[in-house]
Amino acid sequence: MSEIPIIHLGLGPIGRTIARAAAESGRFRSVGAVDTDPALADRPLNEICDADLPPLPVVPNLVDVQTEPGAVVLQATVSRLTDARAQLLSAIALGHHVVSTCEELVWPWTDHPELAAEIDDAARKSGVAILGVGVNPGFVMDTLPVLLSRATDEIEAVSVKRIVNLSERRTALQRKMGVGESPERVRELLEMEMLGHVGLAASAQMLAAGLGWRLDVLDLENRPIVADTDTESAFGTVPTGACIGIRQQVTGLIAGIPRILLTLIMQLNVEGGSQDEILIDSQQCLRLRLDGLQGDQATVSLALNQARLVRDLTPGLHTMLSSPIQTFP
């Protein structure tokens, strides 16, 4: 099987991990490296990632990559679709497929219908496929329960709880979850959508679509988790009374009845460690529990696995619900 040409767009922590994993897999051929950070300009990709990669110089824009159309752009840059739009449209115009870790691209049809339609239309006209991936949103709270639901029927409700031990995660994620801030400040930043996880509501909409449901109401609740004792973090001791994480919950209702409940808890020093639990209330009640599904590692695997499939998808904007389930040799 010939190697798949890939372009690395975004060389932050996730982008570099994707690049290293791609090098180790032996199934990909890196043909471009793009990042807007001036500190990375013209530096060789293999040096930045400390991996067996070609010494491609990092350039600031996709148009600066000298390669033929048909590569797969692995975008790992931003969470918001409005911020990702220009990069996506540039890749499409150059004739490249895209697998992106942009959270809002995983299911953009509800919150960004016009932007989703624009990207879909452009991709169809250029004959390329675009796909958003991630562990959450994109897998554990939406795709996986949809897959599990195939084993039963007469589903009444679905609940998913994801608990992430922030003590085992990178500093940037701890900051994103308000660690060390006052509860009042975290509430303010949550209200402004400047803290917390992006995509919980999108997971609920994606899950509902996969079940064939149309939600009437989505009720979203976010609140800080407060330390009841001094707690160590990646950047020092968090005093009692300060924030050690965030609890986010979304409830999807149909005709006033809760049908979907997604709960995400991300905090330091989680007793029992990270875990995920899916419960399907149906004719045959199903419960699935996962221990230790590490978000960054799972996202990297999802991105590379889908990069092996995306070129075979029909042109347009896809989700994990329209991408095939496939086992690789």
Summarize the structure.
The chain is built from nine helices and 14 strands. It has 329 residues and is of the alpha/beta class.
Walk me through this protein's architecture.
The chain is α/β, with parallel strands linked by helices and 329 residues long. It has 2 domains: 4-134 and 298-318, Rossmann fold (3-Layer(aba) Sandwich); 143-292, Dihydrodipicolinate Reductase, domain 2, CATH 3.30.360. Helix content is 28%, strand content 27%. It has helices at residues 13-25, 45-49, 81-93, 113-126, 143-149, 171-176, 183-191, 200-211, 295-307; strands spanning 4-9, 28-34, 72-75, 97-100, 129-132, 157-165, 217-226, 231-233, 236-238, 243-254, 257-267, 275-281, 286-291, 316-318. Strands 2-1-3-4-5-14 form a 6-stranded parallel β-sheet, with helices on both faces. Strands 7-10-11-6-12-13 form a 6-stranded mixed β-sheet. A two-stranded antiparallel sheet has the order 8-9. Helix 3 runs parallel beside helix 4. The protein is globular. The mean pLDDT is 95.
Task: List the SSEs and their pairings.
Blueprint: E1 4-9, H1 13-25, E2 28-34, H2 45-49, E3 72-75, H3 81-93, E4 97-100, H4 113-126, E5 129-132, H5 143-149, E6 157-165, H6 171-176, H7 183-191, H8 200-211, E7 217-226, E8 231-233, E9 236-238, E10 243-254, E11 257-267, E12 275-281, E13 286-291, H9 295-307, E14 316-318
